Amino acid sequence: MENNLREFSETVIEIKRISKKTKGGNTIRFSALVVVGDKKGRVGLGLAKAGDVSGAIQKSIAAAKRKMFRAPLRGTTLPYSVNEKFSAARVLIKPAPKGSGIIAGGAIRVVLEAVGVTDAVGKILGTKNKASNVYATLNALKKLAYFDMIKNMKEGINEL
């Protein structure tokens, strides 16, 4: 029963205080960006708002669990090198030899650790916006999953 409680690793990347001008004054809310992963190839991202920080984090975790997808792994690293752009963010992720660890900046590092990658090289080339960099990293992993699916389909066709 204890293993079920910690099935996923949850990492809060960013908490922002949001203020909205209204007729009655300013209303203050909080936004939380959370990455959830099982360290076995599944990862998801949640971005949610609430009136208090803990509520925003809980809503983000629930959203991340709903949006989880499987990223391909080759042992402890990634199968291919990929360059991805999202908004003003550009990220480059490359496989690395076993034992080299994750050599990457904050946003990329958190996502790769949540997926279960232990050896990879990553570089943030565009903006320093954490949310954009996380979305770009997730898109890069989705692109890897797509490449892997196509490769598996071609291998299946060749076997016939």
TrEMBL record:
Residues in S5 DRBM domain copies: 8-71
InterPro entries: Ribosomal_Su5_D2-typ_SF, Ribosomal_uS5, Ribosomal_uS5_bac-type, Ribosomal_uS5_C, Ribosomal_uS5_N, Ribsml_uS5_D2-typ_fold_subgr
One of the record's GO molecular function terms: rRNA binding
Superkingdom as given in the UniProt entry: Bacteria
Pfam families: Ribosomal_S5 (PF00333), Ribosomal_S5_C (PF03719)
Keywords: Ribonucleoprotein, Ribosomal protein, RNA-binding, rRNA-binding
SUPFAM superfamilies attached to this UniProt entry: dsRNA-binding domain-like, Ribosomal protein S5 domain 2-like
Entry's Gene Ontology BP terms: translation
GO cellular component: cytoplasm; small ribosomal subunit
Alphabetical list of NCBIfam families matching this protein: rpsE_bact (TIGR01021)
Family: Belongs to the universal ribosomal protein uS5 family.
Protein name: Small ribosomal subunit protein uS5
